[in-house]
Structures are given as structure tokens and as C-alpha cells.
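Before going further, learn to read the protein records used in this course. A complete example follows; check for yourself that the lines match position by position.
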Amino acid sequence: MKNNLSLTLIFLFTFPILADAADRADCFPFERLPAEARPQAEALLLKALDSEALYTIVGGIKPMSSGFSAFTVAVRQPRDEKARSERSETLAKMEETRQALALWRCGGDELFADLHHFARAFDGRRSSDAVVFNRRSLREMLDGRHDFFDRWAITPSAHPLQVLYAVENAESTARFAGYGYLFGYPDHAVRFFVEAANEEELTGRFVERDFYSIATVTSDTNRFVFAVPKGHKETEADRSLKERAELILAEYRKRRGEYIGEDKAGVVEMLRDWFCGNDGICSIPRY
């Protein structure tokens, strides 16, 4: 018994890196989906990579990204047969999307993707967004921001959705700050947004602002974007964030041109060749 325990401890402490590595076949294993579901799953993944979610999936600059797929459903079961049918169809599409998002992994459990619903319903309808997390970046952010997240008893190993719903259901400007940290905005941008929201609540006056954008494939502006004071001068934090993002975007543009298009290998093989070494072991790159 003692020898077996010793061997177990040796294994656990000698090979911790395997927890963040995966075989090539388990890197975005879309082969596990029904054949008819694969084109839609690949299209969703490509859409996310073309958006600011690239900076979560690759490199982890943003601990979380969302909005690359969205749904709304009636809160109450409609009385009208057509409306009931549409509600059922939307929920079925959401289930298909969840099944595809569950396969967004490559390198242990470093990525996590799902749908999340917003707490507040509007006009009798509730919205849901697709969301993806880089768990390593999330843990690092939670560790560095523990003074903020302690209010919800959140610790670095908390499940991503536990963190997200704590922020989503906050009743104060803590919600704005929490989302800012999850989306990877610099400290000064988070502070400004919270202070502007507080001032508007107190005075009723909208605080004028500019916006700082970091380019994505789909747009040079208004995707990875955060509010800054009017006349804001680029800071070192802004510049560092943009330079890291530009490295990722340049590499992605090159690989996208090689893999995406008619008779080309496609998005899954693109990521496998990007994330996996010649030994077939895969992990999420850092930039």
C-alpha cells in the first residue's frame, strides 16, 4: 500500500503539465457531432475567431468573449400555436449550439464555452449569448482581482459560469466593473466606465466619451472596444494590449488565408495545426 501511494504521488507531481495538454484528436473534436451538424458548428467557430473571441481562444488576452451567437425566447409559453412552434424551434437551436460549444476545447479544460442567459427580460423575452472563456486567463484575473470578486465568494478555481452569473446578477455598478474585468479591459477603462455610470445616475447627465478599438477580422473598430474619457491619450496599457492583439491577428489572418475557403482544410484543422506540435500534443498558445 505504501509503495502504491508513493508511485501515485510521484506521478501527480512529476507530470502536472498533462492537465493542460490534449491529443490532436481531442482538439475541437467536431467529429463527435452528427455529420449534418458539423458545417454549422464549424461556421460558428469561424465566426467567433473572426470576432474579438479570437483574443480569448488564442492567447487569452480576454478572459471572456461573448456575442458571436445570440438567441431570444419568450419568457412565458405563448398561447398562439405559431409562436409556440417558433419558441420550440429556437430552444432546439440553442441545444444544438450548446452541443457544439461543449467541444470547444484543446489542451485539457483551458477553454470553456456555453450559452448564458441574461438576468433581465425585456418585452416578455429573454436573451441568451454564446460565451467562451480562457480558464487560465480567468484564473489569473480572479487571483489579481480577488479584492473585487471576494464579495461573491469567488475564488480563482470557480467555474466560469459561476463567475459570470455573479456579475450578471449584481445590482450595482459592480456589474459594469465585473464585465469590464471579464472582457479584459484595462484598469483605467473599467474605472472610467463605472465612474461615468455613477455620475449619470446621480446627475442624469450622460458623460461624453471616446472609444478605444482593437481590430478584428470583421472590423477595425467597435468589436474589441472600451470607453475612455473624451480626448483620451493612448496609455502604455492600451498600447501593450493592442500590440499583443496585433501579433495574434496577424498570425490568424495568415492561417485563415491558408485554411479557409473552397477545397481547403477548414477551421478545425487550422486550429489543430496551430495548437498542436509534431508529437500530437496540443495546448493553447500564449502571446
